[in-house]
Design a protein that fits this description.
The protein has about 190 residues and is of the alpha+beta class. About 35% of the residues lie in helices and about 15% in strands. It is built from seven helices and six strands, in the order ββαβααβαβαβαα. A hairpin with an 8-residue loop joins strand 1 and strand 2. The longest helix has 15 residues. The N terminus is likely disordered.
Length: about 190
């Protein structure tokens, strides 16, 4: 079952091989009024807040980066390239037009701290962050770039990057240990019934 959510399909695949389609306009809202610059698609923002509440993460789990325009993604690519070099940039930053952040369905989260690294925020596999990871699927979110799947996603393991795929997809993908690429392939083959 593929459901349109205000112009953005929650299962929209955006990566190096599948650039952001023209004309997709997410219905954006702030994730948390304390960070008004961090925007997310409206339903994704609502469910992210609910998941953070359920695990008691208010004030501990911080939204670092949500929706990005193509221009902002270009600036991030250029800045990271200048500061960190090509190998690092290709590992952790998507090319402009190929970033999930442009969909409004992706969010980078960090553990609250005086300084949070914008490119690689700290989101440990302990405490409230672990609790969030364990509950995320029920709220339609997946850990988008898991360890050991770099050959499929084309992106290094990013324990801070979550993607809204909707329900029941998030729970199914988490239970089966599938990336979005693998899940979409199974759906196309008729291997998953939702």
């Amino acid at each position: 079952v593929r459901v349109q959510v205000k112009g953005v399909d929650p299962l929209l695949l955006v990566n190096a091989a599948h650039p952001m389609p023209e004309g997709v306009e997410p219905d954006l809202t702030t994730v948390d009024e304390r960070w008004p610059q961090v925007l997310l698609e409206r339903e994704a923002a609502r469910l992210l807040a609910a998941c953070i509440r359920v695990v008691g993460g208010e004030g501990q789990i911080v939204p670092v980066s949500g929706w990005r325009s193509r221009e902002e993604q270009q600036r991030i690519w250029d800045d990271t390239l200048a500061k960190e070099g090509e190998a690092f940039t290709r590992q952790y930053v998507a090319r402009p037009g190929c970033s999930e952040h442009q969909t409004g369905l992706a969010i980078d989260l960090g553990l609250a701290a005086p300084h949070i690294d914008f490119i690689r925020p700290n989101f440990p596999d302990t405490g409230v962050c672990r609790a969030f990871k364990e509950q995320a699927g029920k709220f339609g979110f997946i850990l988008r770039y898991p360890a050991g799947k770099e050959h499929i996603t084309g992106i290094a393991h990013e324990p801070w990057h979550f993607r809204y795929v909707g329900t029941p997809h998030g729970a199914i993908m988490t239970k089966l240990g599938l990336t979005l690429e693998e899940y979409l392939e199974l759906l196309e083959q008729g291997g998953v019934r939702v």
